[in-house]
Amino acid sequence: MHRIMAFNPKPGKPRLNLPASACAASLAFLMLTLPCALAQEQRPAAPIVYVAPVEGIIDLGLAPFIERVLDEAAAAAAAAVVLEVNTFGGRVDAAVQIRDALLGAKLPTVAYVNRRAISAGALISLAAEHLVMAPGSTIGAATPVQAGGGEAQPVSEKTVSYVRKEFRATAESRKRPALIAEAMVDADVAIRGVIEKGKLLTLTTDEALKHKVAEFRAESIEAALERVGIKGAELRRVSLNWAEQVVRFLTHPILSSLLVTIGMLGIIIELRSPGFGIAGAIGVGSLAAFFWGHWLVQLAGWGELLLALGGIALLLAEFFVIPGFGFAGILGILALLAALVLSVVGSGATPEFFMLAAGRIVFSLLAAVLASFLLLRFMPRTPFGRRLILDSGLGTGPAAGAAPESDARWLGKRGRATSPLRPAGIADIEGARVDVVSEGEMIEPGTPVEVTRVDGNRIVVRQITNINEKEGT
After folding, report:
1. Which of 94, 304, 381, 458 yields a CA-CA distance of 20 to 30 A from 205?
2. How big, in percent rounded to 5, are the helix, strand and coil portions of the chain?
3. Tell me, what's the pLDDT at 3?
4. CA-to-CA distance for 80 and 107, rounded, in angstroms?
5. Hey, CA dihedral for 86, 91, 97, 103, is it positive or negative?
6. What 8-state DSSP symbol labels residue 92?
């Protein structure tokens, strides 16, 4: 028998098994690195906190911004939203919108009062889940007032009662002293050891902490977050985008009044001039900007827009279709005024605020009427004014210079005004329809006129007081 022997080149040494060795090395490597990888995966990420400024005037353009920040933070699963408050107040209805958004927020909210939360700013701060104040800050003085005559005017007890209860309900929902909140609004609320009757309550940081209005004092937003239990947060500061900045700009009380004045001035000048030119474009553009801004903040709706368009249509009919000025013109003015006022006050406005808004709009209209009277009376007598009226009213022919041959032939001719000359309009001269401008006075349709001069493409006429006047007199 033969014994079969396995060949071993070096007897006494075991044969190397490469696959088994590689597996052992890989297993050892995994055992060393796996705990580190698991530790990195289990390490918690820094919490995200959105920070939004509440500064300047509290207006209706700020409310959509705060609502957007709350929605974005909730979608990003943020740990909280911080409102950095530094304001003297503003519109009550805007503050109420922000207050409602904060009470309905789906994540924690922190109001960090950095210097002051006065009036509407106090309501916003009380609506946040946590209220933290920087050293040297104040909160309170929230009695409602209306601006008028350059100074604040008191409002009715009905308005004070409404705002007082808004403050109380907000404080109660956040477990803060309700009577303290009421004393910020109504001077008739007295609290022993805190405020006497007849005084309006404003609290410093130390006083707010003492009376449990604020929870903590903090030097910075990071410190405020640590006090409410959020450490090492990643702050994402959010600012107004360009659209929100434009809306806040257009809805500012001063600018909105200016837009109304410019819009009415442009329309008045355009109605007293033939055609459609620069004045009309500026007027319509200004009113469009006014309504667009108030549309975006949900003050103006389809009702206000249709009311405004109806008012303008009635005014156009009164000037160009119906002779004289009567019912249609008055109704058109009232409709336009109503649309403008309703676009300023919105729904749920108090009687005082409604009257204030109506006063602003009426003042803007009177300013436009006065400005149009001065412009149409005095500017046609100046070279620039004659050029401007012609360019905006007629819009044809050369801009200036010697009279064209076709226009020079009208010099000394007579005819009748077929439209009101205020001062520009249309006249019938020897059976031809001619665009003319008066010497500054208003001329009614059907009045005999005479061409006194031709300046460039301006055919200037005057009223003939005596139809039997001789040529050239």
Report:
1. 94
2. 50, 20, 35
3. 46
4. 6
5. positive
6. H
Element (H, E) at 196: none
Q: What is the DSSP string of 244-296?
A: HHHHHHHTSHHHHHHHHHHHHHHHHHHHTSSS--HHHHHHHHHHHHHHHHHHH
Per the rule left: phi > 0, alpha: psi between -120 and 50, beta: everything else, 431 is left
**Taken in order 333, 335, 337, 340, is the CA torsion positive or negative?**
negative
Tens-place pLDDT, residues 269-291: 776 655 456 777 888 888 888 88
CA distance 391 to 408: 19
**Structure token pair of residue 302:** 């389809």
The confidence score (pLDDT) of residue 26 equals 58
Tokens representing 125?
């701060």
Give the helix ranges, DSSP H, for 43-176: 62-75, 92-103, 120-127, 157-173
3-class secondary structure per residue, 211-234: CCCCCEECCCHHHHHHHCCCCCCE
Instruction: Give dist(CA 35, CA 267) in Å, integer.
Output: 77
What confidence tens digit (pLDDT) does each residue in 414-433 have?
888 888 886 777 888 888 88
Other C-beta atoms closer than 10 Å to the C-beta of 326 total 10
In tens, the pLDDT along 381-399 reads 555 555 555 444 444 444 4
**Mean pLDDT (whole number) for 127-150:** 84
Question: What are the φ/ψ torsions at residue 306 (nearest 5 degrees)?
Answer: -65, -35
Q: Could you tell me if 464 and 453 are in contact, meaning their C-beta atoms sit under 8 angstroms apart?
A: no
Residues in the chain, total: 473
Q: Closest by alpha carbon to 56, among 249, 212, 232? A: 249
Asked if residue 183 has pLDDT above 90, the reply is yes
pLDDT of residue 180 exceeding 50, the answer is: yes
Tokens for 374? 């001065």
360 touches 253 (CB < 8 A): yes
How far apart (Å, rounded) are the C-alpha atoms in residues 239 and 375?
43
H or E element at residue 31: helix 18-42
